[in-house]
Design a protein that fits this description.
Fumarate Reductase Iron-sulfur Protein, Chain B, domain 2; 5-stranded parallel β-sheet; binds iron/sulfur cluster; single chain; Rossmann fold; alpha/beta; 6-stranded mixed β-sheet; 614 residues
Length: 614
């Protein structure tokens, strides 16, 4: 394996105390099977998964519990075998503190496996077989972003990738889940890399790892000897500096390229994958195991037995804290993730999710709660620390003052919420909380604007429909009056004929009483007007016109129903609604024409039938 030490820095960054030694001394262990798991249906970026099981169903480990339409989220699988005992909202380990729909399984203690297909000789399998195996594995980015891996892969294959970056930086203090995974399963990691290389065909493979993980690097170096990747994979050893594992920072460190604001790595032909995700990807293909477990670091000075455990998803956090021998007397804060990007939990009554890489239980001295917020003294330290070259103090002023649009203009969206600015702020301003609040407000504002646009569109469409209906009614009224006048004239002519025995030419009478109608579309074989004029309009032709009118009426109903559905679909765009509105109008016009033709033909027929016998 080629190794390179990277010395080029990225802008800003900090080096807080690492505290990694607490949890990286013991080997990776496997947590006991939980008696009950709570699997949230919101464990990934994207749409909520939809349950396909019911309360009372017996399920096996790995069985699909909830699915997502392709390209919209990630599936959820049973992490233990047993019985589904509830499908209901449960508290979600998330900064919002909200509940999420969840599936609860009580274990039968068997851990019997769902028979997923395996592909141990995946080198012989086609790309389509591999992709099909991965599509339903429920994989997400295990570094914390929880973006569905399948969607990322699809995009990368469509776009084409030049560089595949394996993110082994794990730069956040305390967390050692990836470190221990690399030490314990380097062969699985290499197989995961080889699989992705096969699917994406990148020109280069780069692995970025901080220099505080020599054991992991050595394990990979040993495993790669004689491996097909030996001459392909380049390990880039980075100086330990937070947040070197941020996607854009890692890309800059490894390739020297900066991902421009508003762009994605894929726009530069680069894809980053976390080591945990690659091992899970390998297990999905080779073992046929969907994502049902992950490595979680249990650490902090308030636990007596820190380390890393392979944990089934949905396991109660309280059970893990027991495993790590948490000391309730000492515990001050329980954090999901690390001290920089993590969030506090108010209790241990939550459950492990796909994105949960660490549980940190700290003492009051170890990680004191921030002191009272002081005014900004414009010292500029936050600006020096920001790895994205933002102006954190300016963003703070805008966010605190409610000037969210201005914060947006200052590239608030580029903020990766790394917390480096807040870490160095002498005024103890919780800067990231201000940024999150501003981002939430902007999302809400955009959603409100979209709702208002839709409401306006609906109002205008309704107004146009009412006007059109009124116009159509008026046209029909006029047509009826005209037809009645013609009918009266025909009657008068008929009675005059009866009084006057001189025969009048029948065709002339028919021609004067029949209202000209446009040719019937598709259904009538001959124009009814011509038939009426010749006195030969028969039942068959009238029937065809009636069928044409009925078909046009059905088409209108269908189009209106689709439009109504679009109005209640949150994802429907104004363009889609407008397009459907036009379809409705076209169908209504078609119906009006069909009705008019039928009416004309019926009147012509009636007039013809009233002619005196020749
Ligand atoms: S570090 Fe804190 S006090 Fe200093 S400029 Fe930034 S926000 Fe203001
Ligand atoms: S949290 Fe945002 S503003 Fe603060 S340092 Fe990180 S990227 Fe910059």
């Amino acid at each position: 394996m080629i190794q390179q030490t990277i010395s080029r820095p990225f802008h800003g960054g900090i080096h807080p105390p690492e505290h990694k030694h607490l949890s990286n001394q013991a080997p990776l262990r496997t947590a006991p099977l939980p008696e009950e798991v709570v699997l949230s249906l919101v464990q990934h970026a994207g749409r909520i998964a939809e349950p396909i099981v019911q309360v009372g169903d017996r399920v096996q480990t790995g069985q699909l519990l909830a699915g997502c339409q392709s390209g919209t989220g990630a599936c959820i699988h049973a992490s233990i075998s047993g019985e589904v005992i509830a499908i209901e909202p449960r508290p979600m380990a998330h900064p919002s503190g909200l509940t999420a729909p969840s599936i609860v399984i009580r274990s039968d203690g068997q851990d019997s496996r769902w028979p997923w297909p395996t592909l141990p000789d995946w080198q012989q399998a086609s790309d389509q077989q591999l992709l099909a195996q991965l599509e339903h594995a429920g994989l997400v980015g295990l570094g914390g972003a929880t973006f569905p891996t399948w969607i990322k892969l699809e995009g990368a294959r469509k776009h084409g990738i030049r560089t595949l970056i394996i993110n082994a930086a794990e730069c956040e203090p305390y967390i050692t889940a990836d470190d221990l995974l690399m030490r314990s399963r380097p062969e699985a990691l290499l197989e995961g890399i080889a699989l992705l290389e096969r699917l994406l065909q990148p020109e280069q493979l780069l692995l970025g790892i901080e220099d505080n993980k020599p054991e992991a690097l050595q394990a990979i170096a040993q495993a790669i000897a004689g491996h097909a990747l030996e001459s392909r994979l380049k390990a880039c050893v980075l100086p330990t500096r937070y947040p070197s594992g941020g996607e854009k920072q890692l890309i800059q460190l490894l390739t020297g390229q900066e991902v421009p604001s508003g762009k994605l790595p894929i726009d530069l032909g680069i894809l980053c994958q976390n080591v945990g995700t690659l091992v899970a990807l390998r297990d999905a293909v080779v073992l046929g195991q969907p994502l049902i477990e992950r490595v979680v670091t249990l650490t902090g000075q308030a636990v007596r037995n820190p380390g890393n455990w392979l944990v089934r998803l949905g396991t109660p956090i309280s059970q893990l804290l027991q495993l790590a021998e948490a000391d309730p007397e000492q515990a001050e804060r329980l954090i999901v993730g690390g001290p920089m990007m993590g969030f506090n939990l108010d209790s241990d009554q939550y459950h492990v999710t796909k994105g949960m890489n660490c549980l940190l239980l700290t003492t009051a001295e170890e990680l004191p709660l921030p002191g009272p917020e002081q005014p900004c003294i414009r010292c500029g330290r936050c600006e020096d620390a920001c790895p994205v070259r933002l102006l954190p103090q300016q963003l703070y002023f805008y966010a605190a003052g409610g000037a969210f649009d201005k914060a947006e203009q200052q590239q608030l969206a580029d903020c990766i919420e790394c917390g480096a600015c807040a870490w160095v702020c002498p005024s103890e301003i919780p800067l990231v909380q201000y940024y999150r609040h501003a981002k939430d407000q902007l999302i809400r504002k955009r959603a409100d604007a979209r709702k208002a646009d839709l409401a306006k569109l609906r109002f205008e469409a309704r107004k146009a429909r009412l006007e059109r209906e009124e116009q159509e009614k008026e046209t029909k009224r006029r047509a009826r009056a005209e037809a009645a006048a013609k009918m009266a004239a025909a009657k008068r002519a008929a009675s005059e004929t009866a009084e006057n025995p001189t025969p009048a030419p029948a065709t002339a009478a028919a021609t004067t009483t029949a209202t000209p109608a446009p040719a019937a579309e598709n259904t009538a074989s001959a124009p009814p007007t011509a038939a009426a004029a010749s006195g030969s309009l028969d039942d068959k032709q009238l029937k065809q016109l009636k069928i044409a009118r009925a078909a046009a009426a059905v088409a209108v109903k269908k189009a209106e129903k689709t439009l109504a559905n679009l109005h209640t679909t949150p994802d429907a765009t104004p363009e889609q609604i407008q397009e459907q509105q036009q379809r409705v109008e076209a169908a209504q016009q078609q119906l009006a024409r069909a009705e008019q033709r039928l009416q004309d033909a019926e009147q012509a027929d009636a007039a013809t039938s009233q002619e005196p016998d020749r």
